[in-house]
Prior knowledge:
Layout: E1 4-14, E2 18-21, H1 22-25, H2 33-40, E3 44-47, H3 54-69, E4 78-82, H4 93-101, E5 108-111, H5 117-130, E6 136-143, H6 153-159, H7 169-176, H8 179-182, E7 188-198, E8 205-213, E9 221-222, H9 236-240, E10 247-248, H10 250-271, E11 281-284, H11 289-299, E12 306-307, H12 310-313, H13 320-330, E13 339-346, E14 350-357
Helix pairs in contact: 3-4, 10-11
Amino acid sequence: MSGVRARFAGSGIAVPPRVIDNHRLARILDTGDSWIRERSGIVERRYVEAGVASSDLGAEAARAALAAARMEADEIDYIVCATMTPDQLFPGAGTMIQQKLGIRPIPALDIRQQCAGFAYGLQVVDALIRSGVARHVLLVGVDVHTCLMPFSERTWAVIEGRDEGPISPAEFAWNSRFRNLLVLFGDGAGAMVFRASEDDGSGRGILGSKLYGDGNHKEILTVPGLGSARRPFVTAEQIAAAETVPVMDGKKVFKLAVTLMPQAATDLLAEHGYTTADLDLLVMHQANLRINEAAQKALGLPDEKVHNNIQKYGNTTSATLPICFHEAREAGKAPEGALVAFAALGAGLHWGAVLLRV
């Protein structure tokens, strides 16, 4: 099967209809539109309604990707789902997406590399198809971050417009404690469908990847509680101490991202005989617009070869790469035959790049 490649067939996205702009967040924590824009580039993000889970958004994005690929759900013979926010601790979201799509029992693999999850998923898809294990693979990246937000019911009522507010000074202070994280994240899903295709000389398909993991940086982006290192897994004391809320060293993440993402992309291009001049599009994880601007500068790429949409969605973790790629295609930046590089960095630390010829 060495002549077989994982060829891109279609993409789709699912973003909640509820738009939460920076001004809305300023009603429940100490922040403001200019403060958020200056530090992250984010203007607004999307929040699901209570009860909408990752598998719901993932299945919606999958249906859109299947329609774009002109494929029926039953043609899929393998599902790969990247998420750090499954509907529940276990099982993962993969089989739930399979069930909601009405697909017969097939392998469903859940992976968890956080913000680099979709990049890792692309490598898994490539391996599955090249090895002959699968011929039609659905790759879903989805995260519902609102489940991690430590808001009271009153705060949620103000965010959602059910209560004019204001919230109490104690609640405002509690929310503000986490503002460096809460202003960044949104909910969303993206999906891609790949099919096995004999190499016809066009070079289309996933060409390769360079991915890395290094636990020496695990403390810069992590959730202190909720895990096997604690007994029991979760306690009321953990929740009260906010140990179930992610913590991030933003300065270290920034420094590593603007170095490691460009290096991985450059090395991968060179490995396949290309330079950045050959790239038609670079899609980077949408964590912070300032990170991506610095990485773009390091790679010497013009604006027309980069696409960012963090301004309207925030950081959707596993979903940023497919959502960004889908919208770039809609904007005409990744037509058939285009050479596209994906680059990401996230907790773990996980990072790397993947090369695709559309």
